Amino acid sequence: MDNRRVVVTGMGAITPLGNDVDTLWNNLIAGKNGIGPITLFDPEAFAVKIAAEVKDFDPKQYMEKAEIRRSDRNVQMGLAAAIQAVEDSGIEGHFDPERAGVYFGSGIGGIATFEDVFEKYLQKGPRFVSPYFIPMMIPNMCAGTIAIRYGMQGPALPAVSACASGTNALGEALRAIRHGYADVMISGGTEAAVTRSSVAGFIKMGALNQTDDVNRASLPFHKDRGGFVIGEGAGAMVLEEYEHAKARGAKIYAEFSGYGSTCDAYHMTAPDPEAKAGAKAIKDAWIESGCIDASRVYVNAHGTGTPLNDASETKALKIVFGDDAYKLKISSTKSMTGHMLGGTGAVEAIASVLAMNKGIIPPTIGLDEPDPECDLDYTPLKAKEAEVDCVLSTSLGFGGHNACVGFKKVSE
Length: 412
Fold this sequence. Notes:
Elements: E1 6-14, H1 21-29, E2 36-37, E3 50-51, H2 65-69, H3 73-89, E4 100-105, H4 111-124, H5 133-137, H6 141-150, E5 156-159, H7 165-178, E6 184-191, H8 196-205, E7 233-241, H9 242-247, E8 254-263, H10 276-289, E9 297-300, H11 307-321, E10 329-331, H12 334-337, H13 344-358, E11 360-361, E12 384-385, E13 390-397, E14 401-408
Parallel strand pairs: 4-5, 4-6, 9-10, 9-13
Antiparallel strand pairs: 1-7, 1-8, 2-3, 6-7, 8-14, 11-12, 13-14
Helix pairs in contact: 3-6, 7-13, 10-11
């Protein structure tokens, strides 16, 4: 059963740029900025007061009140994205439960729940800790909740690899289908970490841009970049074995064609400046995808806006593609969505597939003065039309985790 073809048949998204795939896409190509003042807690005492929050999300559209009360925001958003993807795909009722599963990533899990319950514990003591504390907090619960919703009894796991979580979840789901362990997988990532302790921790690391100017906060590949903007959100895909999808007449967005996963084995938070392991993850996904012409490849870069990441990622692309790296179409949609941590890879995979299907490359907004060290075509300021046959989406996480997924147009 090795090397069975895998396709994308459904997509869903809850993001700072909209709570469905169409709204997300329209705002991406319009260059809309999803960053704004923090409203999920009072940031007065914090050096950072802006984030890329999800707006107007109503979990009651997807869950009963009792289910909402016993679930963290990351699970609510992840389940919502999964429900959208399932509805988009029409897969419900068309799979063997034992041949269907869920791989869903979260870098942090229920940190808002942890904060709230621990505060209550400190104020009132252990008798007042919620019986739902542990299941609401643990990062596997989104995968479990989705599997329960749809009765999927095959493999169900979280990917927990920091900022690479969503991309690793997708890649491992690809392998589960490709190598015969499942026919259908719901996969993606979610994160809801715009919280007091999370933001404070990232500030103390020096990871976040501390400007109050929302238009100068997330500046991937810019000479003045000074850190990332924390965001939240979720993305989900329904993945199917190709013949399974064809047999039921499913619409197919793309073939999921490649995956690379490596580790720098270098530093807890900093990327390896030599970028060798990151380059290998990208190369593995590209070679598996079988796309030769770099001029017809779009790369949705990790592009966080941190000084080390953007330079290292640029170097990785040059290692893989050589002089042809200058032919690539590249952009960082984090310039608009901020960094959704464990959710970002899944949302960016969706953006990549849509870029290929629509023939439009989303922009890197704010990129009016690129860093000379970052000298590739990052689609500055405005979206542009371009026909591509293959897309790559990269994610690089703390711990040295590197992941890259590749998609291409479906051929018979």
